[in-house]
């Protein structure tokens, strides 16, 4: 394809507004994990769309928040670094007229850099009275000179193509950064680890999943077979959490493993033999060295 326009687009917003769901909707493929709990995304996730002579490189970012741990600081830094070198931003918000401090901080940051931005008012499938959107849009528009405002539902894909059109319009002339068929630059290992973390977020309550991290220690295709052996370690913060993650008779860990395996198989197109271990690493979210070995550096 003849790419003439291209650029990097940061997807930003407070936690849990649907940034990762939106990335997946834009790509038409699930590459970013999603959960109903805030602070799901920890790393910058890249997704590439190449169409109509343009290539857009989307950067899904962690939800902007006030960090309480070193991991939190790493996540906030990831947001700030993502904003630093993009051609455009999509600010994703709940269908609400109020802003929180993290959102105001994001607006201030993109404003200072004069980054063209599109406001995506997400979750409109939950808005009963569409007239309410007018007031919401007016409230946000007073705070920033958005290039466009698009009400969307990342969940149903309503408005997503329109959003894509608006963002494409903002792309400067530029080269093709990735081959036509590139979807993400994440290695399979990273995706597999994230899928396991998604299941932990889905199945466990409160702080426990937020205190977990997943490391893929082995990913190996068996000779003369399509089967891939994956060995992964789930790190958690306390001995008591370990017990809950494993569950009675290993039931919880089995559930996590089964759900993760199905998703990993779908993604890599091979049968997978997934083995999970659970280990305790005291207060790892505040230990620089451990964060590094877990890929948060
Ligand atoms: N009803 C509805 N729910 C949505 C929509 N988009 C996302 N959600 C839900 O909102 C929750 C958060 O979605 P995520 O995509 O993980 O949100 P995020 O902004 O990436 O969250 P962090 O990574 O924690 O910052 C999930 O339960 C999603 O299913 C939408 O358009 N409509
Ligand atoms: Mg996310």
Describe the model:
The protein is built from 9 helices and 9 strands. It has 297 residues and is an alpha/beta fold. The chain has 2 domains: 5-169, Rossmann fold, CATH 3.40.50.300; 188-293, K homology (KH) domain (GMP Synthetase, Chain A, domain 3). The strands form 2 sheets. Strands 2-3-1-4-5-6 form a 6-stranded mixed sheet, with helices on both faces. The protein has a 3-stranded mixed sheet with strand order 7-8-9. Strand 4, helix 3 (101-112) and strand 5 (117-121) form a beta-alpha-beta unit. Helix 6 (188-203) runs antiparallel to helix 8. It starts with a strand and ends with a helix. Residues 19-20, 40-41, 60 line the site of magnesium ion.
Task: Please give a handful of descriptors for the protein shown.
297 residues; alpha/beta; Rossmann fold; 2 domains; six-stranded mixed β-sheet; three-stranded mixed β-sheet; 9 strands; 35% helix; binds guanosine-5'-triphosphate
How is this structure best summarized?
This protein has helices at 19-27, 70-84, 101-112, 132-141, 160-169, 188-203, 239-246, 251-268, 288-293; strands spanning 5-12, 45-51, 54-60, 88-93, 117-121, 148-151, 213-221, 228-236, 272-280. The chain is an alpha/beta fold and 297 residues long.
